[in-house]
C-alpha cells in the first residue's frame, strides 16, 4: 500500500502537518475563549476609544491658550464647568476657557489637551495654569487605539487575557475559533499494565497513556484513552480502526518489542485512504516516529520510551493539534529563547538533536545545562525546563555557545 | 480602622502574599491533575524500574564474557533461551551463556549487560559477539530511576505532563493538590457599560472584567464576575460584602474617577477583621494598588487602566492565587528569561518599573524591544511577549544591556 522507511526531516514533517485540514469553527463567548485560536481576522466595528478622553485628572483646555505659561507668570482661564464621568459634556470650550475633567472623561468640543491638576490652581471660577501643554497632551483621541474597520487581530493568534481585553473594549463578545481536536491515545506492549493495577514481576506500568493524555489536554485537544493493546496484530487493528473513527488524531505509542512498530505501520496501511507521510524522522530522540494520514485524520506511531514520545509530541504532535485548532505561524510551536550551553554537546550531522536542559541565570544571560542521564530513565524528564535544539547540519554545540531552547509549557 | 498611604515595595507585598493561608487539599486522579500543584511530597512506593531492564534489542550477557571480543575474533556464547516481553525469565544465565532480549525485557539472573543486536551474529544456538560490553551497559537497574521510599517530587511543584508520566510509572494515580481559589471580579465607574451592551456616547466598555476573568482562569482560579458598580459608596459596600463572602480573593478594579479609590479603601476597612497590607506600591505602572486582608481572604484594589491592572495581576495577584493553590518558590512567578534591551529605557530610582516588550532574536541572543505607546492605549497590551523589569534602585536600562524579562503565559 505504501513504501516503508520513508525517513523525513523535522522541517519536512512540519510542512506536511500544516497541510492537514483545519477543524470547523465554533462561536464562543469571551468567558470560554481563553487559550483558543482566532479562526478569522477581527475587524474593529467601532472606534476605540469611542471619543477623545482625558488620561489625567485636570482641566480640559485649548492647548494654544497655555503656551508661555510658567510658575511666575501663570495663564488665567475661566472655568466653564465640570465634565461628569461617563457623560457627554453639555457645553463646548472657547479660547480662554477650561473645564474640570477626570481621567477617562470625554473632552468637550474645542478642547485639545488636558492640563494636569498639579500644574494648576483653582480659585473663584478661574484657574491659573503654571505650565504649557502641547496639543493632544494627556488625551487619547477617538479611534487612536483602533479605528473602525481596521484589523484588530489576524486569524491564527492565541486568545490571551490581553486579547480578550481588547475584544471586550471593542464590544466583540463572541468570537469564531477552531474546534478542539479529538485525540485517541493507545499504548501497545505485552509488558504493560495500567498504572492503577497491581504490578506483576516482569511487567511495567503504562507511562505513555497519562503523559500523552495530559500533553494533549495542555495543547487544547480533547483526549480519550483507549488503554493497552497487547502485541497481537489483529487486536491492534481492531482498536486502531475504532479509535481513528472516533477521533481526529490517533497516538499509538509503540511497545518496545521489535515487531510492534511494524504492526503500527501495517495497521495504518490497512485503513482505507491511508497515506504514509513518514516512517522514520531524522531526529534524536524519536527516530522511529511514524506519521500517516487517513482522509483528514492523522495517526502517529510514537516511540515507546516516554521521554522520546513526549519530545516528539512537543515538536510534531502539538503543532498538528494547534494547526487543526486554527493556530498559525509562531503560535504552532513552543516558545523559543536563546541560551548559552553549559558544556559541550556533541551531535551527529544529518539529524536534529533535542537535548533536555535545565535553565539558570548568570551575568552573561541564560545558561542551559544539559541533563545527562541514561536515555531510558524517566526521572530526568520532569526536571527539564526545555529542549535545546542542535540543528541538522551541526556537529554539536560548544560550551559557551548560544543555542535555541524551546521552553516546556 | 487602619492607616492610609501605606506604600510598600513589590518584594514586601510578595512576602505578605505568601503569608496567606493555603486552601484545603483535594484528591485528584491523574486525568484531572494537570496544571495543579502538589500539596505534599510524593514518595516512591516501589522501585522504578521494578526490575533491571534492557534498553536495547540484543542479548543479555555476563559482561565479563565479552571482554576482548572484536570483529576478527568474536566471542562465542551459547543461547540459553529468549526472554518474552513482560515476563519473568524462566532461567538464569551462567558464564558463557546469552539470552535473546528486546528493549524493556527483564534481565535474567546472572546477566549484567546487553550486547546490541548489530554487534552479534546468531547461528544454530550460538551467537558471535563482535564487541565487548561493560557491566551495566544497555541496562537500567532496578530502582535506578527512583528507589522505593525516596522523595520523587517535593510539595509545591506544578503538575506537568512529565510529572504525570513519572507518577503513573510509579503507580501513583491519585494526588493531593491545593484547591482552586474562587475569585470575585468587580469593576467600578460611572462611565462603564458591559461589553455586550449598546455604547451610549460618553461611556466606555468595561474591559477589566473579562481581562481579569481570563487571567484568573489561566492562573488556575475559579472566577465569577460581579459586574459594574457605579461610583456610589453604599452600592460598592454592599457588593464587596457579598463578593468577599462568596470568594477567596476579590479584585476591584478602580473606576478612573478620583473618589473611587477611596471608596475601595473604605469598603475594605468596613469589613470585620479587615487589615490593610498596602495602599500604594512602589511600582510603575500600578502605584495606586491596594491590598487588604479579611481573615484568610484577600481584596485587591487594582488600577482602572486595564494594562496596569493586568500587570499588577501578573506580578501580585497571580502569585497569591498560585500560593493559595499550593505553589512554591519559582512556581509562583511568571517564567523569567534575560534579554538585551533594544534601546535605552529610563526609570526613576525608588520604584520598580515594568515595561511591555516584544522579543526577537539576533546572533547575540534574545532582544527585548520596549513597546512605547501612550499609557492609556490598550492596543499595545496584546502585542507584548513579556514585561522587562527595571529594579528599584536603577535609573534605567541602557541599550544593549541585559535585563530580566518575565514571559507572559
Automatic annotation (TrEMBL), chains A, B:
Its cofactor is Mg(2+). Keywords: Magnesium, Metal-binding, Molybdenum, Molybdenum cofactor biosynthesis, Transferase. Pathway: Cofactor biosynthesis; molybdopterin biosynthesis. It catalyses: adenylyl-molybdopterin + molybdate = Mo-molybdopterin + AMP + H(+). Its EC number is 2.10.1.1. PROSITE patterns: MOCF_BIOSYNTHESIS_2 (PS01079). Residues 184-323 form the MoaB/Mog domain. GO terms for molecular function: metal ion binding; molybdopterin molybdotransferase activity. It comes from the Bacteria. One of its GO terms (biological process) is Mo-molybdopterin cofactor biosynthetic process. InterPro entries: MoaB/Mog-like_dom_sf (IPR036425), MoaB/Mog_dom (IPR001453), MoCF_biosynth_CS (IPR008284), MoeA-like (IPR038987), MoeA_C_domain_IV (IPR005111), MoeA_C_domain_IV_sf (IPR036688), MoeA_linker/N (IPR005110), MoeA_linker/N_sf (IPR036135). GO terms for cellular component: cytosol. NCBIfam families: Glp_gephyrin, molyb_syn. Belongs to the MoeA family. Catalyzes the insertion of molybdate into adenylated molybdopterin with the concomitant release of AMP. PANTHER family: GEPHYRIN, MOLYBDOPTERIN BIOSYNTHESIS PROTEIN. This is Molybdopterin molybdenumtransferase. It comes from Thermodesulfatator indicus (strain DSM 15286 / JCM 11887 / CIR29812).
Amino acid at each position: 500500500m505504501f513504501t516503508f522507511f520513508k525517513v523525513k526531516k523535522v522541517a519536512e514533517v512540519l510542512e506536511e502537518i500544516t497541510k492537514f485540514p483545519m477543524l470547523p469553527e465554533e462561536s464562543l463567548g469571551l468567558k470560554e475563549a481563553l487559550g483558543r485560536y482566532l479562526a478569522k481576522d477581527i475587524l474593529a466595528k467601532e472606534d476605540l476609544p469611542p471619543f477623545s478622553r482625558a488620561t489625567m485628572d485636570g482641566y480640559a483646555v485649548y492647548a494654544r491658550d497655555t503656551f508661555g505659561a510658567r510658575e511666575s507668570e501663570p495663564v488665567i482661564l475661566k472655568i466653564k464647568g465640570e465634565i461628569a464621568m461617563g457623560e457627554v459634556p453639555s457645553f463646548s470650550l472657547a479660547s480662554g476657557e477650561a473645564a474640570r475633567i477626570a481621567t477617562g472623561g470625554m473632552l468637550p468640543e474645542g478642547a485639545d489637551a488636558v492640563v494636569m491638576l498639579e500644574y494648576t490652581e483653582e480659585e473663584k471660577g478661574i484657574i491659573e495654569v503654571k505650565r504649557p501643554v502641547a496639543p493632544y497632551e494627556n488625551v487619547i483621541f477617538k479611534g487612536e487605539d483602533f479605528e473602525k474597520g481596521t484589523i484588530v487581530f489576524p486569524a491564527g493568534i492565541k486568545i490571551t487575557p490581553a486579547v480578550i481585553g481588547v475584544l471586550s473594549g471593542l464590544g466583540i463578545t463572541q468570537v469564531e475559533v477552531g474546534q478542539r481536536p479529538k485525540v485517541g491515545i493507545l499504548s501497545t506492549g505485552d509488558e504493560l499494565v495500567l498504572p492503577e493495577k497491581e504490578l506483576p514481576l516482569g511487567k511495567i506500568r503504562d507511562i505513555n497513556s497519562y503523559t500523552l493524555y495530559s500533553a494533549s489536554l495542555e495543547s487544547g485537544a480533547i483526549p480519550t484513552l483507549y488503554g493497552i493493546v497487547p502485541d497481537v496484530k489483529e487486536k491492534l487493528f481492531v482498536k486502531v480502526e475504532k479509535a481513528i473513527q472516533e477521533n481526529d488524531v490517533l497516538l499509538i505509542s509503540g511497545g518496545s518489542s521489535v515487531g510492534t512498530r511494524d504492526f503500527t505501520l501495517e495497521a495504518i496501511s490497512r485503513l482505507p485512504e491511508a497515506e504514509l507521510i513518514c516512517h522514520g524522522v531524522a531526529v534524536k530522540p524519536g527516530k522511529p516516529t511514524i506519521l500517516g494520514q487517513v482522509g483528514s485524520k492523522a495517526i502517529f506511531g510514537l516511540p515507546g520510551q516516554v521521554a522520546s514520545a513526549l519530545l516528539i509530541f512537543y515538536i510534531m504532535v502539538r503543532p498538528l493539534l494547534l494547526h487543526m485548532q486554527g493556530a498559525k505561524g509562531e503560535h504552532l510551536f513552543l516558545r523559543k529563547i536563546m541560551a548559552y550551553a553549559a558544556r559541550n554537546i556533541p551531535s551527529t550531522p544529518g539529524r536534529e538533536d533535542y537535548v533536555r536542559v535545565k535553565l539558570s541565570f548568570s551575568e552573561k544571560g541564560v545558561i542551559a545545562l544539559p541533563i545527562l542521564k541514561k536515555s531510558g530513565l524517566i526521572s530526568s524528564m520532569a526536571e527539564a525546563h526545555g529542549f535545546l535544539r542542535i540543528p541538522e547540519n551541526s556537529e554539536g554545540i560548544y560550551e559557551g555557545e548560544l543555542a535555541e531552547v524551546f521552553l516546556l509549557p
